[in-house]
Amino acid sequence: MLRITINNVAQTPSLVVEGKLVGPWVKELEKLWESMLATEPSWAMVVDLTAMTFVDSDGRELLTRMRRQGAMLVSAGVLMNAIADFAVLVTRLTTEGLAEEQRMALIDQFIRIQGLDSAFQFDLHDLLMILITILIIIFWRAWDRADRWPFH
């Protein structure tokens, strides 16, 4: 379930999004967002995500588009902060005329800030073990399908 509250204060309207931004609720938020933009496209919009508990891929895409169109995303919690930061990253990568080196530097910075750099640290031994495991699985399935696997 999703709850959207509209706060129209002066020149800075805001949307407070609570609950799960999934499935048909993404379309509802998108319709509301587009109608607010059509009413006053020059306003700086604030989207409060602090009470949002989950977002699916369509919801992340919508938040990225909203951010790209100038919305300020306010979030709390590890997951929502990461999603908001990702929306900012995608916006910068797609709208700013950056050189390839600058794009890679932004991606590296995002990875470090999110603490994902340790997830990408493999040494040669780890990589070889992963490749050997994948090869064993591939051969096992191929032999099993060909009915040549000796251990039935």
What attributes characterize this protein structure?
54% helix, alpha/beta, 152 residues, 5 helices, four-stranded mixed beta sheet, Transcription Regulator spoIIAA
Q: What spatial form do the alpha-carbon principal axes imply?
A: elongated
Question: Which series of helices and strands comes N to C?
Answer: EEHEHEHHH
Can you count the beta strands? 4
- Structural class given helices, strands, pairing? alpha/beta
Q: Indicate the CATH architecture of the largest domain.
A: 2-Layer Sandwich
Radius of gyration: 22 Å
Poorly predicted runs: none
For the record, the count of structural domains works out to: 2
End-to-end gap: 49 Å
CATH topology of the largest domain: Transcription Regulator spoIIAA
User: Treating each run of at least 4 consecutive H or I residues as one helix, how many helices?
Assistant: 5
- Percent range of helical residues: 40-55%
Strand content: 15-25%
Please give the largest β-sheet: 4 strands, mixed
According to CATH, the homologous superfamily of the largest domain is STAS domain
CATH class of the largest domain: Alpha Beta
Strand order of the largest sheet: 1-2-3-4
Overall residue-averaged pLDDT value: 78
Question: Could you please describe the fold and organization of this structure?
Answer:
By secondary structure, the protein is an alpha/beta fold. The protein has two domains: about 1-120, 2-Layer Sandwich (Transcription Regulator spoIIAA), CATH 3.30.750.24; about 125-150. It has five helices and four strands. The protein has a four-stranded mixed sheet with strand order 1-2-3-4. Helix 2 (about 55-70) links the parallel strand 3 (about 45-55) and strand 4 (about 70-75). Helix 2 (about 55-70) crosses helix 3 (about 80-95) and helix 3 (about 80-95) packs antiparallel against helix 4.
